[in-house]
Amino acid sequence: MPSRPGFQLLEAEHGVLRAGLRRALETARQGSGRASGTIGSLTTGLRRHMRREDRALYPLCERLFSGWEGAVSVLKEEHDALRKQLDRLRTAQREPDRAVQRETLEGLARLVDLHFAREERVLFPLTSARMSERDHRSFERTLRADRRNRRRTDRT
Ligand SMILES: [Fe+2]
Ligand SMILES: [Fe+2]
Q1: The pLDDT value given to residue 72
Q2: What fold is seen in the domain 5-151?
Q3: 117 alpha carbon to ligand 2 midpoint, in Å?
């Protein structure tokens, strides 16, 4: 079954973040020292994406999978691990040794791959199948509204 619009939005964000991560890794491996701009937008994008899921998706999963909170808590723990790795990356950017930044980015890439795959292969299809038409519409609306608000705050 093709993904529904709300999940398509999240999957599209995964695509953008994966591409950003690849670019940051390439730059860091070349050692040209210009990775900081790429890392900055990657960090902001990933934090925003997780915040959107924390607010709009995970509470919905907890409601739909009552008794299976453990499964959702694994994903929440992965968000915590990702945030910690982003903090490490910020510290690594100040390191004169470029290898530290590269290794931290590689660690982030491993966590991101694992987490996105779990969401795309397991969480999104399972959640989507349990959602009513109304759930799907309100999920998409929430994600789009959140995006519009963010653009407005970004402009101010
Ligand atoms: Fe996530
Ligand atoms: Fe995600």
Answers
A1: 87
A2: Four Helix Bundle (Hemerythrin (Met), subunit A) (1.20.120)
A3: 9
